[in-house]
Amino acid sequence: MKQYLYIGIFLIACHIQAQQSDFSHIDFRKADSLALAHKDADLYDLQELTNNLISGLTTDVERFRAIYFWVCTNIENDYSLYLKNKRKRQRFQSDSLKTQNWNSQLKKDVFRKLIKHKKTICTGYAYMVQELATLANIPCEIVHGYGKTSTNLISETDTPNHTWNAVKLENKWYLCDPTWASGIQNPETATFMFQYNDGYFLTNPTLFAINHYPQDTKWLLLDDKVPTFNEFLEAPIVYGNAYKSLETHNEPKMFHNTIKKYETIGFSYTLKKPVSNNSIRLLIDNGSSNRQITPKNIQITDQNLTMEHQFNSTGFYDVHLMMDEKYISTYTFEVKR
Q: Among 129, 308, 318, 331, which one has the highest count of C-beta atoms within 10 angstroms of its own C-beta?
């Protein structure tokens, strides 16, 4: 009986998309300041850390915010371990026994480094958020699946490569990604720089689904227009700055596009906050040169941004949407006669 009740509650909660704007009336500065006040705390007594982080906070969303913000600003992304794990999984992809043995060894390495050095990969981030939330009596789940970035594209044969969290606040489930929110990696130097991105906190599920695909699709938190795995693979590339600027990404739906010369291409987005028309550019690269242009017919109405572009020459083009000189999304266009 409890199982059926849970399923019913889950479906009702998912019916309306859960996102950070649900809590626009909440001031998170107190929660963030508590997290910053305990910046040097270690991980040897998680109950004490949790108590310190949630002290004096009156709502679950503030408590969770303090926990999440602390994890994102104190746990370092272990890029070397990430690369090692990626190599091992590719190497053992066709050998289930070796994969199982590696996963067992990886789990030990992840938690040893997490507790001792406050360094980890996505699994450790998601575990820490869940553990601290659970100690604060906030329902929180670890979600395993696929994460797609400009430097880590996914194919149909790949195994799950990413982990994030779902948290239940005021009877609704929300999504967040503490790994990608924590900062940025430099692949050339294998170094990490803390740079908190608030866009991955209680993100709109529609935007989240463009580069996150869970093994269990209920954690898409989309009750209609649920994308297939193939649609996920074909979706555009979106960057961390998209999470800062966009509520949803609407058009184009696909990364690779084939069009005819002079055909009008439509771009459509829902903004988190107003932007200036002058800040919007398309960077177009044909393989030998690139140029920035102002799109045609830019319209911003009620946070909805639309614009258009036409190619006057055949060829293959990389097209990057930029706002304030920052990359938002990328597409390719093959232009035929």
A: 129
pLDDT in tens, 250-270: 999 999 999 999 999 999 999
Nearest to 329 by CA among 268, 288, 259: 268
Residue type, 179: T
Which residues is 175 bridged to in the sheet? 166, 203
In whole angstroms, give the CA distance from residue 148 to residue 329.
13
- According to DSSP, the residues that pair with 307 across neighbouring strands are 267
331 Cβ partners below 8 Å, 6+ apart?
A: 236, 237, 252, 254, 255, 256, 257, 318, 319
pTM: 0.89
Q: Residue 5's beta-bridge partner residues?
A: none
Please check whether residue 142 is in contact with residue 71, taking contact to mean a CB–CB distance below 8 angstroms: no
Helix axes 96-117, 79-91, angle to 10 degrees: 170
Residues identified as active-site = 122, 162, 177
**Segment 105-111 mean pLDDT:** 71
pLDDT grade, residue 8 (50/70/90)?
A: very low
Q: What is the mean pLDDT of residues 101-109?
A: 66
Structural domains of the chain, ranges and CATH numbers in brackets: 2-235 (3.10.620), 249-336 (2.60.40.10)
Closest CA to 124 of 199, 74, 186: 74
Q: Answer whether 249's CB lies under 8 Å from 242's CB.
A: yes
